[in-house]
Amino acid sequence: MQLAVNILVLAAIYALIACGYVLIYRVSRVLNLAHGELMMLGAYMLVATASAFSMSPVMAVVIAALMSLAVGGMVYLFLMRRMTGEMVLAAVLTTVALGILIRGAVILIWSAQQYHPRAMLGWGNPVITLPGDARISLYAALLIMATVVVYGGLFLFLRFGRWGMRMRAAGQDPLLAAQRGINLHAVFALAWGLSTFTGALAGILIALDSGLDSTMVMIGLKAFPAALVGGLDSLAGALLGALIIAAAEVGVIRFIDPLLADVVPFIVLIAMLVIRPWGLFGTREELDRV
Amino acid sequence: MSKPLPSASGHFRRSYADEFRLIETRLAKTSAAAFALVLLVFPFAVSPFYVDLATQVFLAAIGALALMLLTGIAGQISLGHAGLLAAGAFTTGILYKEFGAPFWVTLPSAALAGALLGVVFGLPSLRLRGLYLAVSTLALHFLVVYLGGEYETRRGFSTGILVDPPVVFGYEIYAPRVWYFVLLAAAALTLLICINLMRSRSGRAWRAIHSNETVAEALGIGIARYKLLAFVITSAITAMAGALFAYYRGFVSIEAFSLYLTIQYVAMIIIGGMGSLLGALLGALFVTLFPYVIEGAMAALPGADRLAGSVFAVNYAAFGIVMILFLVFEPQGLVGIWRRVRNYFLLWPFRQTALGERP
C-alpha cells in the first residue's frame, strides 16, 4: 500500500512537470530543456515572496506562482521569439543556454544553501495516515490534488476555451492559424507562461514538502522521459508516462538498487525510443517534422 | 570540386595535383609556418600556467573537432559528448587500475570502446531525427555516467581513480612542456584527419546527408552506413581525447563528466561556427579560456570581489549569456566574424563580396 502511495506521489510530481514540456512542444514544436531550471526559479520566487509577504503566507504562494507565469511569457517574448523559424537545434540549444544562465543567476542571488520555505511561512507538514496503514505528507497529498486540478483545467481549457482552441490550432498548423487571424506570438507566449506556471507550481510544492536547493533541476530533467514516453504532444500521454516512469523508479529503488534511481527514467526512455519513438499517444508524423 | 578556392586571391587550380594540396597560396604557406613557429616557441616563452592553459585548449580542440564532424558536418545532433569522453577516460582508468595496462594498450582500447559506443549511440540515428536523436544521446550519456559511477562505488574508488603518467619508449610523460607537445601533436593529427575526411568521399557524403537525406539517398549514398560511420569516427576520437584527459590529469572521476561538459562542447561548435573545422578550433579556444577571462575580469573590476565566493555561478551565468548572444545575433559564430573581417580587408577599398562567396 505504501508502495502504491509512493508511486502515486512521484507520478504526480512527474506529471505536473511533464505537462510543461508537452504544452510548449505541442504548441510551438520546441523542446524546452530549461524547464527544470524555470521550475526551480519558481520555487526560489517563493523564497523571495515568503520574506516579503510574511504576514499572509497564502498570498506569498499565489504571487510566486503568478510571477512564474510572467517569467515564462517574458522568456518567450524576449528570447524564444527570436528563434522562431530557426533550426530545431538552435532553438533547443537556446533553452539549454537559458537553463545555464538561470542556474548561475539563482546561485548568485540566493547562494547555494538549502532553503526551507515551509518554515519561512510558518506552516507545518502533518503526516496523514491513509487506510491500509500508508502514510503521506500533507504537501504530497496537495501535490496529487494540484496535478488533478491542473490536468482537469488544461483539458477543459484546450477543449472549450477560446485561447485553448487557438493554441491547438497554432500547434496543428501555424501558417493556417496565422491566416485565420490568430496572434501566434500571443499564443506561444501564453503556452510558455502556462508551462512555466505549472512547472513552478510543482517546484513550489516540492520545496514546501522537502526543502529547496539547486539539485531540484534533476527532478525537472527526470520528468522529461515521462513526457516523451507518453508522446511529446499528448497531455493524456504525459499522465500515463509519468505513472510508468514513477512505477519503474520506485520499483527499482525498492527491489533492485537505489543507486539506479537517477538512470531508470532514461533507461525507460531509451527502450521507448527503440520500440515506439513517437510515444504511447503521440502523433506518428511528428518524427519527420522535427 | 571538394573545397572552395581561396577567396579573392587570384589563385586558380591548373592541374589535378593542385586539388590535392593542403596549402595552396603563398600567403597561406607563410602564415601557417609563422603560426607553427609561434606554437613551438610558446611553451618556452611563458609561465607554466599558460602552458597548462594551452594544453587544455589542445585537449578541448580534439573533442570539438570530433563533435564538429558529427554535428556541424553530418548534421547529427548529439548531447552525449561527455558520456563518450567519460567512456574513454574510464576505459583507460579501469585497464590501468585492474591490469596495469601500458599507454599503448589503453589508448587503442579507449578508441575501440569509443567506436563500439559510437555504434550504440548511432543506431538510434537510423530511425530518429533531430530532437529525438538528441534526446536518445542524452539518455545514453546518463547511462554511461551511471556505469562509471557504479564502477567507482563497487570497487571502492568513490573519490576517483588515480592514473600514473604514461611511459612511452621508456620515457615518462610528466613535465608540462612535454604534455604540451604531445597534445599539440595529437590535436594537429586530429585536425589533419578531419581535413582529409572532409575532402574525401565520406565528407562529401556527410554534407549531402546534412543538406537533404532524401536527395542524398537518391544520389546513391548509403545513409545508414555514413551516419554510423560519422558516429563511430567521432566517438573513437572523442574517447581517445578522454583517455588523454585521464593521463594528463592523472585522475579519473565521474564528477568531471557532467551534462555541463557536454554543453560546453556543444557551445564550442556553436560559438566557433557550425560546419567549419576552423570554427571548432576557435570555439575550443574561446570556451576553454572563458572562465579564466571571467575570473580575471572579476579580479580587475572593483566591487566584484564580494562575488568571489561564487565564481562558478558567475561563470554559469556569463556562459549562458554568451551562448544566447551567439545563437541570437551571430549564428555563424566566430568563423562568421572572421570571414567578414577577412573579406573586408581582402576587398578593400571595395565592398562587394566575390561571386558565390558567403557574405
UniProtKB/TrEMBL annotation, chain A:
InterPro entries: ABC_transp_permease (IPR001851), BCAA_transport_permease (IPR052157). One of its GO terms (biological process) is amino acid transport. The keyword Heme does not apply. The chain crosses the membrane at residues 6-24, 36-53, 59-79, 88-112, 136-161, 182-206, 226-247, 259-279. It is a multi-pass membrane protein. Keywords: Amino-acid transport, Cell membrane, Membrane, Transmembrane, Transmembrane helix, Transport. Pfam families: BPD_transp_2. It is found in: Cell membrane. Its main location: membrane. One of its GO terms (molecular function) is transmembrane transporter activity. Belongs to the binding-protein-dependent transport system permease family. LivHM subfamily. This is Branched-chain amino acid ABC transporter permease.
From TrEMBL, chain B:
It is a multi-pass membrane protein. Keywords: Cell membrane, Membrane, Transmembrane, Transmembrane helix. The chain crosses the membrane at residues 31-51, 57-74, 102-123, 130-149, 178-198, 228-248, 268-294, 306-329. It comes from the Bacteria. One of its GO terms (cellular component) is plasma membrane. The keyword Lipoprotein does not apply. It holds the Pfam family BPD_transp_2. Its main location: membrane. It is found in: Cell membrane. One of its GO terms (molecular function) is branched-chain amino acid transmembrane transporter activity. The keyword Transmembrane applies. This is Branched-chain amino acid ABC transporter permease. It comes from Chelativorans petroleitrophicus.
